[in-house]
Design brief:
By secondary structure, the chain is an alpha/beta fold. It has one domain (2-210): Alpha/Beta hydrolase fold, catalytic domain (Rossmann fold, 3-Layer(aba) Sandwich). It contains 7 helices and 8 strands; from the N terminus they run H-E-E-E-H-E-H-E-H-E-H-E-H-E-H. It has an 8-stranded mixed beta sheet, with helices on both faces. The longest helix is centred in the middle third of the chain and has 17 residues, at 86-102. It is globular, with a radius of gyration of 15 Å. The relative contact order is 0.15. Residues 1-5 have low confidence and may be disordered.
Length: 215
Amino acid sequence: MAEDARLESVEIPGLAGLLEGLINAGTRSDPRAIAVVAHPLPTAGGTMHTKAIFHAAKALSRIGCHVLRFNFRGVGRSAGSFSEGPGEQDDFRAALRFMIDRYSHVKRVWTGGMSFGAWVAMTVGASDPKVTALIGVAPPVSRYNFSEVTTAAKPTFIVHGERDELVPLKEVRKFYALLNEPKELVVIDGADHLFDGRASEVGDAVEDLLQDFDG
């Protein structure tokens, strides 16, 4: 498949050892942005192959980004073991630095993730001065501390399921109200937390949100 032909397997040096990753270089030799995306909670079966993350990464590549998705420590072929968050934040920092070093000429740097991965990606991205936009898919705002995201005042894009059973939409709307502009929220009708049967719509939403974004 043409899509698969642009995938490159990489190993990312992390504090717990090597992390398994995939870069989708899209169709452009000179990317408009680089992005790092993180998967949901490992203890609940989240991996870089989780359908919604797969579709989000594909969408970002379609709009001209070079995208890295990777497995947190202890997932797939990544070294180490789950550490409840701090270690996974270290993993994300390592992945982000890997992409920034590899594509040092690219000025737009976006971080995103799904569920637990959204918390990791958005909080790490909020504190990194090189990161220019944050993307959250089903961000667990009622379960983790997202205060760094609200105070960072960076462009933030959110995709959430209307019927998310773990993170009620009303909580996401409260969080969204705290964010500075520019910001966008897309609600996928009828979708649950994992976007079961609706994962491709996550990709469509990400593409729509960011295809004309210039930050």
